[in-house]
Fold each of these.
Amino acid sequence: MSIPKADSHRQRLLAEALQLARQEDTSTASQRLAAIQADLQSFAHSIHRQPIPAHEIPVAVREAFVEATVRLVPYQEVGGSNWQGTLNSPTLEHYRPDPLPKILQEPAMGSQLCELFQLSDDFASQLQASQEQVTERLTQQKRIMAAAMTFFQGSCQGRLLLFQALFGPLAIPAAIIDCIHTPLQLYFCLPYKDGKFYSSNPDIALPDQLSESLQSFLQQLDEFHYQKFDRFPTFGPCHPAHIDPDWCKALAQATGDSPTDIARVLSRAIGIIPTHKMEAFLIHDVWGHHWQYLCTQFSSDYAILKDCGQPFHAGETAYTPDGPINCRMLFQVQGEQVELDHPKAHLFFHGEVQQRLGLLFTHLIAEMIADAAEFKFVWDNPHHADQLLSSSVFKDLPTKLDLTLADIDFLFLQVLRPLVEIHLSALEETPLETDLLREWGQAGHPVHALGLKTSLKTAIAALYQIFFQEYNTTYLPTLTGEASLFTDIVSNLLYLQNVLNELYTEPINKNAVPFQDLLLLFVGCYCSSDSYAEFWSLDDALAAYYWPCWHLLNTLLNIQC
């Protein structure tokens, strides 16, 4: 774990930037944020740009780079080159992925890369199997989306039927439903703002009063819900349980896929965006996020992240230096007395925090590289940069310090909530109490005794006392005062953003080997195993080894850098 050395000047600047990120955007705040970011650019690693032998590059870096190179082919399929829609999108129209040499599209390229980068036969086999899985998922999603889009058929009424099949029988005017779609993704564009519809077209009649169900639907579109994480990469409102089951069965008969697979694919491939902000979302989601779902392991972390707000159960498990510890192991019952195992409680807390922060790191990295993909439009089309809408001060940089600080400020405590939020009452049981009492009752303990129940509540209160002490000592989300893990996280994010900004804007021959797209794929592949550990080493890996890996790839293609 490589943590940046403490620096009081850096910490003061980051603390001020965090405060500004929390405020409403003003010209003064934006100017100050830009000045801070310029000052913070000096906190960066030196980038190694010269070739080095493959065996001197860490195996994990070589494996991630080779995997990323192989994923360049599905990356271009997943993107939005073949988009269509009822609205024009100048950003999608002008967005271009890096040109892909034909040699990199050959089926045997994976094995050649493994040989060049001196990787094991086992890894080569795993790479081939994973690439086949990606191809199968791509094919399945294309098949399902093509079948679903038969309801569209270019008509206004068709869009309404498709919308209602996905979201329920909402009384929405068909004329206000627009859409942008690719062979793999569909985004409904609705003219809504602040929970209300609007229309600039006098020929379109809007209802004077929305139905209760439609009003609730609109309000939920912009609200934070943990369950949206389970619908990565769109984070949309298309819940599998709300999709018309008869329609799912019809699609299943047409495609040969199961209704469950149909609902799963649709819930992750379909989103809703406000029409007036569509250019702020399309590239970010179409080119920035969707490949992450199909080509990395991010979705497994998001599937866990969706449950981060749930209260603890007896089986909640933290992985610690002493091995896995679950909640039931923290308590020992003798007669009507329940004792807390204090050493295990300390280990559990730190292990659980680390696991939850790993999930947060996955989200921060996923957003960061989606932001960089979005920046590619500005980089390649500087004269059309105004067509890309952005809520960030740093539209002219690959990464967005302000948005990243806002994300971590909001989500840090959200992912830790069950560890720092306690609900104890003499009148009701928590899920943890219910689980423990049921298990102890099955083991013959006197669980109906009021003394045992009260003793358990006392032990849980003692557990949370330990949690609060450890949180206060190590994890306070502040950049002022004593250094904490939160300070280290934000500092590491800064170094990571600075190295990513520098690498992404290198003056590279666009007609040679892909550089920018490969860079983002490398980050996604590198961070697809243990996101907590990889977060701390990613900035060093990029600075020290990305260029040397790229040099090696060029030797295979006989291209002089």
Amino acid sequence: MNGSNPTQQLVKGTAILATAAFLSKLLGVVYKIPYQNITGNYGFYVYEQVYPIYMILLTLSTAGVPIAISKLVAERLAVGDIPGARKVFKVSAITLMLTGLFSFTLLYTAGAPVLAFLMGDPDLVLPIRSVSFALLVVPVMASIRGYFQGHQNMMPTAVSQVVEQVVRVTTILVLSSWFIYHHYDEYYAGAGAVFGAFTGALAALIVMLLYWRSNTLAQRRHEQTARGEGGDKNVQAAPLTTSKGHGSGWAHQAETSYVNLSFRQILRRVAAYALPISLGALVLPLFQLVDNFTIPNLLSWTGWASKEAFNLRGVYARGWPLVQFAAFFATALALALVPSISEAKAKRQHQQISKRTEFALKLTFIIGLASAIGLAILAKPINIMFYVTPEGTVTMAILAFVVIFSTLGITSGAILQGMGYVTLPARHLLIGVGVKFIFNLILLPFLDIKGAALASVVGYMVAALLNLWAIYHIIPVRLFKKHILLPPVYAVCVMGICVSLTMVGLEYGLDSVKLHERLLYALVTLSAVLVGVVVYGLSLLRFEAISRTELSLIPKVNRLIPVLETLKILKKEDPEQTEKGASS
């Protein structure tokens, strides 16, 4: 579609999608804090109970479809089969429209009462029906995204993702505020909030259709220009040719245009790519679904009143946005790791694979460990700063340790995918979900939501360790050596002491100052985080948890190397070692 080479298109496309994904995820996490402030713990419970159901249905119907369509469209365009590429899109769009209509009908009619009954709260029927409307729009939007991606045009997908989240978050905050202000209950507020899935998807679809119209007009102008120059009235539908002298696999496939394939044949090819991806993406929402079905029911069965059980479920949900936010680093690293390791594997650069794997896992552990310990120590001030009351502080502190294993799981999963083991991380996550379910059943009756938090830590730990064990047997890496694990632990201990002293000192020091409690704890949190970042960074260098060569690989941070060497915080390396590190 443009004159740039395939590598430039790939890098540019990846960068565009990565930026859009980061902004979308950031918006998708941050809005939960003001939403909880508007509706309270009970309103938070309603939203958290309903939205994962929509995510699972959405994942089943669309998760792998844009990738499958983009792959098949790109293959058709590569061999000149433009009508075949369009037929792939038409078949996919029609099928997704029908599956979306079926999913909506099922969820709105029989599904909503059944799911509400299984979750132990019949009042959830209204918000479940409210979120079901999104299933009418999202599948069609997914097929258009896949078609544009097949043309190596990532901008429509990126723009539509950001627009979708902005409109969705705006709808959530506006409608929930309106319902609460007009004295409707939390179920109406929750129904208004989850309706944002529909308004956001509709806005994204409009963006995609505008891009589609612009692209169609540009194609028509191009065809008219080509006809005027060459006099060929059938420029677009150039005949497919294959050279018998070139025995490549794709050339053989190009002998038959997809136009000649039946609806069912094309659908089977799309499904062959889409279903494995959808099933793999389905695993992560299952973690949350386990809590949705077990927490309210088990708490009620062990003597808690229904309203109190539902309120506790909302308190439990407080920690998850912070855990998800802390995982952004690992998500960004994963986006870069998959193509990087795939490239090294294709070139058979085994030493490069080992080095990149070790560095990625080491960096993930260093950041995940500090994030977890920092969040655990500062759970009380963070809880009050964001959510007004200290309810669920211990639960939030336990959930903080999910960060270590979720980040390691994301990074190690990306490494395995880069090595070609695409389904292995999903299988390990599924095992983690099973472990989480069993521990929920065991711990919830004795520890209430603290038991659910501990079960989440164990579930993610099992999934991450299975990934690491697989890497250990696939790639020659040093994962569990003392010189790799102990220095970050020493550094985080120093950080933890300094953060704790800062927190306690400011709490007592500012106690006499007349400040609003949230403002007080905001100052405590931000000051302690700043101290923690500085102390942890210096401690990592002092304990040699990260070397000069490794530091030089981190963008922006590598500019500090001369200053750190001048201050004798960072040891200078021998020129020979530096040269070896650079060449590797």
